[in-house]
Design a protein that fits this description.
The protein has a single domain (about 5-380), classed as Rossmann fold. It is built from 13 helices and nine strands. It has about 375 residues and is an alpha/beta fold. Helix 6 links the parallel strand 6 and strand 7 (about 195-200). Pfam families: Abhydrolase_6.
């Protein structure tokens, strides 16, 4: 697909794409395989540190906090949160003082506030016509936002609420998240639904261990991932304290996503990637997402996204029972990072979500020309 019409999948249609299985069953690997895998995870780091003579290799280095001695400089506007942390943000579109629609955007994995695809791809005419204001922010540990070692799904939702209040966005605002930012958007639906005017999830990352998934469906989807990513996710879930070591040691391949393996890109993604990369080179992303350290940025993300969640998204209730807003989930059917089968199942379970499946699209479909206009119109004015 290259910006064509979306295909909305009904719950009944989604059901046809999934296998029937006992609902509520938790995804587990066969016990004998899982036991050997867990033993492997514990024994290999010990052997590694013994042979290398460096036990510190398992421990991540401390972060280089922006504005601290030896740390990156602070150049972005930031708000100070109630716990003392700083959150960096970037404003786009019309002034919030005259805006009719106010959107908070959550960036994806290994990105920053500069990677607000809905802001960079929206047509200027639509921004002016509808009066759209967008604020993107560096999630904790990324860019110029302070790390948060005790970060949870709930704390991120509360950060978003506090950002909205500090910027004066009003009692209700819209939220849109892409990729891993899309996955974190589920926490807004859980913890601050009363603050939401509408929600859009763009190719949201899936946690294969959510108990609401049928075990056979989760297993099949998990096995579609590259072997290196299967292991990286297994480490993040079962042994999160080894996440840094696993992805920086040289004995075994770390996460293919962290290492930008092109095998994770669909045909459409490969066409779009140079366009995205050109924007970064030309200064759209003038700072490194990992500049404060990899552990509190990308690896903390992996541990939160694929760890044991505080809630199951499939237990969520409709935040807009009177149709005063809407929740949209957009997914490419050729996405190699996020299996479409699991998104279809979510659409089946949560019938109040408006599910849009894009034939021929991969993970980077928001960068297709005109696509973001379609996405944002659907959330703001229902077209």
């Amino acid at each position: 697909m290259a910006g064509g019409p979306t295909r909305k999948i009904s719950a009944a249609s989604a059901r046809a794409h999934t296998r029937r299985a006992r609902q509520g069953s938790s995804f587990k690997l066969p016990s004998e395989i899982e036991s050997s895998n867990l033993l492997f995870l514990y024994e290999v780091p010990i052997l590694y540190s013994s042979l290398c003579g460096d036990a510190k290799a398992i421990q991540p280095p401390p972060p280089k906090i922006c504005g601290s001695p030896g740390g990156p400089p602070v150049t972005a506007p930031r708000i100070k949160l109630r716990d003392g942390r700083n959150l960096a943000y970037k404003e786009h579109g019309v002034s919030k003082d005259v805006a009719k629609f106010k959107i908070i955007f959550l960036h994806g994995f290994d990105n920053t506030r500069h990677d607000a695809v809905i802001a960079s791809q929206l047509s200027p005419g639509m921004v002016e016509e509808l009066g759209i204001y967008i604020v993107s922010f560096d999630r904790p540990g990324y860019g110029q936002s302070d790390p948060h070692p005790r970060r949870t799904l709930k704390s991120l939702a509360l950060d978003i609420e506090e950002l909205a209040d500090k910027l004066g966005l009003g009692s209700k605002f819209y939220v849109a998240g892409f990729s891993m930012g899309g996955e974190m958007t589920w926490s807004c639906l859980k913890y601050i639904p009363h603050r939401l005017a509408g929600v859009t999830l763009l190719a949201p990352v899936i946690n294969y261990w959510w108990p609401g998934f049928p075990s056979n469906l989760s297993t099949e989807a998990y096995n579609l991932q590259l072997p290196a990513d299967q292991w990286a996710l297994r480490v993040a879930h079962y042994a999160p304290w080894l996440t840094y070591w696993w992805n920086t040691q040289k004995w075994f391949p770390g996460s293919a996503v962290v290492n930008f393996d092109p095998a994770n890109l669909s045909s459409q993604d490969k066409e779009l990637f140079p366009k995205i990369l050109e924007g970064k080179i030309n200064g759209v992303n003038e700072e490194r997402s990992r500049q404060q350290g990899e552990y509190e940025s990308i690896f903390r993300d992996l541990m939160i996204a694929f760890g044991f969640w505080e809630f199951d998204p499939m237990d969520l209730e409709n935040p807009f029972p009177n149709n005063e807003g809407s929740v949209h989930l957009w997914q490419g059917d050729e996405d190699r990072l996020v299996p479409v089968t699991l998104q279809r199942y979510i659409a089946q379970r949560l019938s109040w979500i408006q599910y849009h499946e894009l034939p021929g699209s991969g993970h980077l479909f928001p960068a297709v020309g005109g696509m973001c206009d379609t996405i944002i119109k659907a959330m703001l004015i229902g077209k």
